[in-house]
Amino acid sequence: MFTMFELKFRFFLKSVLLGIGICLVMLSPLFAQQDTLFTKYGDVLVGKIDNVNAESVSLKVKYRKDAIEIKFSELIRIQSASRFVLNDVGNKNWRGALAVDTLHSGQIGIAGADSVVFFSSRRVFDVNEDKPRKFKDGLKVSLDFGINRIKADNSLSANLGINSAYRSRRWVFEADYSAFSNSVDTVLNYWRNGIFSASYVLSKEWFVTSKLNLYSSSEQSLKLRRNIFAGLGKIFIHRSDEILSVSAGIMSNSERYTTSETNFSSSESFLSAHYNGKIVERWESVLDASIFPGLSESGRVRTNLNLDIKYKFLNHFYLGLRYTLNTDNQPQVEAAQSDYVFAVKFGWSLKKY
Question: What's the average model confidence in pLDDT over 167-183?
Answer without folding.
Answer: 85
